[in-house]
Amino acid sequence: MAKRLQSYESDDIVVTFDPNICIHSGDCVRGLPAVFDVRLKRWVRPENAPAERVADQVRRCPSGALQFRMKSAD
Ligand code: SF4
């Protein structure tokens, strides 16, 4: 059964994570550990870095499991 899409947001950005397509490369936790910490239940904390930095890291996700949307673009 497919796992549900996860969504995490700060005041500036919404980050979504699709656990069905993550390939566990670890790029996110290595690249921005203040935001991506798999030891925590709420493992994505976009408020811990500038939104542009979070967006840059999300773009480096090799599987596309991480996606983002800037709230200012709404
Ligand atoms: S960078 Fe993307 S594919 Fe790699 S562990 Fe993080 S979410 Fe999964």
Overall description:
- With 74 residues, this protein is of the alpha+beta class.
- The chain has a single domain (6-73), classed as Alpha-Beta Plaits (2-Layer Sandwich).
- The protein contains two helices and three strands.
- The protein has helices spanning 27-31, 51-59; strands at residues 6-9, 13-17, 66-70.
- It has a three-stranded antiparallel β-sheet with strand order 1-2-3, with helices on one face.
- A hairpin with a 3-residue loop joins strand 1 and strand 2 (13-17).
- The longest helix has 9 residues, at 51-59.
- The radius of gyration is 11 Å and the shape is globular.
- It starts with 5 loop residues before the first strand and ends with a strand.
- It binds iron/sulfur cluster.
- Iron/sulfur cluster binds at residues 22-28, 61-63, 65-66.
- Iron/sulfur cluster binds next to helix 1.
